[in-house]
Amino acid sequence: MIAAGEIRRDIIAPSFEGCINILAVHLSTPQGQQIAKVGCQSTRGSLRSQANPWNKKVSMNLKNACICIVDDDENVCRLLSTFVSSWGLRPEVVTGERLETQWFSDFHADVYLVDLQLPKVTGLDLIPSILKQSSDSKIIIITGFADKEAAINALRLGAFDFLEKPFERELLRHTIERALETLEKERMLTRLVAELRQSQSELLAHKERLEYVNERLLETNRAFSTLARSIDFEREQLEKQVASKIELILLPIIEALRKEKELVKFALELDMLTITLREMASGTSNDPKVALILSPTELRVASLIRGGFSTEEIAGQLFISQNTVRTHRRNIRRKLKLGGAGQNLRSYLLSKSPSGVTEGGVSGKQDSEFR
User: Fold this and answer.
1) What is the rounded CA–CA span in Å between residue 193 and residue 198?
2) Which residue of 6, 27, 51, 205 shows the fewest CB atoms closer than 10 Å?
3) Helix 74-86 × helix 16-26 angle, to 10°
């Protein structure tokens, strides 16, 4: 008779077929069943104490992966379930009456170990049904009959691999490991593709928003351009109206006042007023550069110099001393960068003045830099 210790060693033997044969022989007698029961219990304890040989390439997400074992032989299911548990994986067994149900709709497994020869269907018949429920799962077909055509058909239907009994325990572990690695990579690729599509969708939406904002900005720019042209046109029209009223109403009135004997003493004031009004009528009073860099008092002095007024006359008009006028003259020349004595200040100011103001001024006065 075979000792219990020897039975235990035979159950864990590398040969899968050897395990099945030993179980088949000894389970046929009550004594053999008792010995096998003791041996299996000892085997489970031994397997639990072993270090998990699982490949580190498989991520922690799949270390507790579900492995579904589909076989009509309950002894084979128990043995394979023991192996799967010892590798740190979670077994799910489908055998007996459960084979006649739609069991593949009840749960999702990562890897399916399916026997080729089942009572009413073949493992090949189950491949489409399993993949319909779990499209990314990996199916490994197991058979005790060498059938090249069946292996080719299994791979064509979507099986991951085809194992022929008897096979080594390590070969089964390695095959499951490869299936889980492939499954992990495919799921990662699926996630990356989904993230890429999401990013692409967000980029397209962002592009559409930018195009919409750009179109609104273009419309706003066109509206502002139209408004600016309208404002410029209205300003030009207003300037023309002001110039027309100055020429037709105000200047004739000043000329009439100039002829009044009682107003002779205000001749300088009337000249200055005439110069200013003619500048306004011409559409510009001073060159923008001059207007920006000179102070208000310097602008008044420059206007009188341009009109041909002497330093004494400017001092009388502005109620300041002649020395102050000379200081303003020097400041104006410095700011306008007229450093040389050969550059006449009045000539320069006349070159920046509207055409309505003549070289001789309104009263025909002549300029002298030092008057």
Assistant:
1) 8
2) 51
3) 130
We report the CATH number of the domain holding residue 113 as 3.40.50.2300
Residue with tokens 């000892």: 42
Phi and psi at residue 324, to the nearest 5°: -65, -40
Q: What is the pTM of this model?
A: 0.47
Domain range enclosing 114: 51-188
CA dihedral 357, 362, 365, 368 (to 10 degrees): -30
* Residues 20 and 136 occupy one common structural domain: no
- Does residue 43 belong to any structural domain of this protein? yes
Mean pLDDT by 10 residues, the chain (371 residues): 34 41 46 46 43 50 83 91 92 87 84 90 90 90 83 90 88 94 92 93 92 93 90 85 87 86 78 76 58 79 84 88 93 84 81 52 44 47
Q: Are residues 181 and 67 in the same domain?
A: yes
Domain assignment present for 159: yes
Sign of the dihedral defined by the CA atoms of residues 33, 37, 42, 45, in that order? positive
